[in-house]
């Protein structure tokens, strides 16, 4: 896959998945703006890319504000003359169950993940329009945004909202040739280490040792296993793919469905409470309710 001549921004690229995305884009030939609030680790990633023969610069703005988004897009244009790919990866965790979650815990997660995706997506789309369209917005979601994730109110709300942005922006930007897709990554990173039963596997990945085949087949591998999807979606080969939520992990790729009705019934005169009670208790909606329970990454033990 050849991305020569393209310019990409990856937010939150100092560690983990973001770092893998930035390095993979650079290996494919793109010039990369490596954003991270920890500018020192961003510079380390840049040094690795440059040492490998690639082109990259570091940028240290916090994601969430309009000013931060404009700064990272401005960095791409100032250093490389244009912007072709925006990967919105930056995020934080403040895991608390609902009754223990403070306002500031919720707000900082939504500010970074959801508002950061909005402001960066808007700034990138404006730059794409100025260049004539045909940009790539790659928004990073999570299995936690697709299903329940115990103790992650702000994170699940943000990641679900991000996939909502994928669908809406795909419709709004279609005529300009800009594609918008969501990546649903599963990888053995520092964030995964907090899931019960996962710490040993994360340590294995950190040491560069092979991940067991059954774990990889279950959809759980390293950050590098996800990066190929980002490179593909950034390329001209993916020009016809938009509005999708695509999962990646280990040896597994999956396409997530859009929400849709699974059962619908008509009743003359409408539905009062008694009719609904009958329909849900042995009636037409019996057996139609959807699974809601918390799930972890494929291949990982269930969390409690």
Structural commentary:
With 304 residues, this protein is α/β, with parallel strands linked by helices. It has a single domain (7-256), classed as Rossmann fold (3-Layer(aba) Sandwich). Helices cover 42% and strands 13% of the residues. It contains ten helices and eight strands. It has helices spanning 16-27, 39-51, 66-80, 103-131, 143-146, 153-173, 199-206, 213-217, 223-234, 273-280; strands spanning 7-10, 31-35, 55-59, 85-88, 136-140, 179-185, 245-249, 252-256. Strands 3-2-1-4-5-6-7-8 form an eight-stranded mixed sheet, with helices on both faces. α1 (16-27) packs across α9 (223-234) and α4 (103-131) runs parallel beside α6 (153-173). The protein starts with 6 loop residues before the first strand and ends in a 24-residue tail after the last helix. The model is unreliable at 296-304 (pLDDT under 50). Keywords: Oxidoreductase. This is 3-oxoacyl-ACP reductase. Belongs to the short-chain dehydrogenases/reductases (SDR) family. One of its GO terms (molecular function) is oxidoreductase activity.
């Amino acid at each position: 896959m050849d991305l020569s001549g393209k310019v990409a921004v990856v937010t939150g690229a100092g560690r983990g998945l973001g770092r893998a995305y930035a390095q993979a884009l650079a290996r494919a030939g793109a010039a990369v703006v490596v954003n991270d609030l920890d500018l020192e680790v961003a510079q380390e990633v840049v040094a690795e890319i440059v040492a490998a023969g690639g082109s990259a610069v570091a940028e240290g703005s916090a994601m969430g504000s309009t000013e931060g988004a404009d700064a990272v897009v401005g960095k791409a244009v100032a250093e490389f003359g244009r912007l072709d790919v925006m990967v919105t990866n930056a995020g934080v965790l403040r895991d608390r169950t609902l009754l223990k979650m403070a306002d500031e815990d919720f707000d900082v997660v939504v500010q970074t993940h959801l508002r950061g995706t909005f402001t960066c997506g808007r700034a990138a789309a404006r730059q794409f329009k100025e260049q004539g369209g045909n940009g790539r917005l790659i928004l990073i979601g999570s299995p936690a945004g697709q299903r329940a994730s115990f103790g992650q109110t702000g994170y699940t709300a943000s990641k679900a909202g991000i996939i909502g942005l994928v669908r809406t922006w795909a419709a709004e930007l279609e005529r300009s040739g800009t594609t918008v897709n969501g990546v649903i990554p599963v990888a053995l990173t520092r964030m995964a280490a907090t899931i019960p039963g996962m710490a040993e596997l994360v340590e294995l990945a950190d040491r560069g040792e092979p991940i067991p085949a059954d774990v990889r087949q279950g959809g759980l591998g390293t950050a590098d296993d996800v990066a190929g999807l980002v490179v593909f979606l950034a390329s001209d080969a993916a020009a016809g793919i938009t509005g999708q939520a695509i999962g990646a992990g280990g040896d597994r790729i999956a396409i997530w469905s859009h929400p849709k009705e699974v059962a619908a019934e008509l009743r003359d005169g409408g539905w009062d409470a008694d009719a609904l009670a009958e329909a849900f208790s042995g009636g037409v909606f019996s057996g139609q309710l959807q699974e809601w329970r918390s799930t972890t990454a494929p291949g990982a033990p269930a969390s409690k």
